[in-house]
Design brief:
This protein is mainly beta. It is built from one helix and seven strands. The strands form two sheets. The protein has a four-stranded mixed sheet with strand order 2-1-4-5, with no helix packed on it. It has a three-stranded mixed sheet with strand order 3-7-6, with no helix packed on it. The longest helix is centred in the N-terminal third of the chain and has 12 residues, at about 1-15. The structure holds copper (II) ion.
Amino acid sequence: MRLFVAALLAVFAGSALAAEVRIRDYKFHPERITVKAGTTVKWVNDEKRASHSVWFRDERLPDSERLFAGDSHERKFDKPGTYRYTCGPHPEMLGVVEVTP
Ligand SMILES: [Cu+2]
């Protein structure tokens, strides 16, 4: 519910700040992305079969829902910082979102 409200607020705020990370070959592309605070990052699973997730484990957040082929996941980053994440089923998959002021 909280995510839904956040998404709704983002829509109403008309936020144009967006960035995309594609998932394929068991990797995040790009593995490191730099965005401005207030940006919504969207992960899209481009695999034919493999499912993945987006898990900000260091922040002790719950794992995302499982992303099957074509599914996507979004998170808005309001605070500058370095956000490392992994994939729940594949801990060898690593990614970083660098958020600048
Ligand atoms: Cu994965």
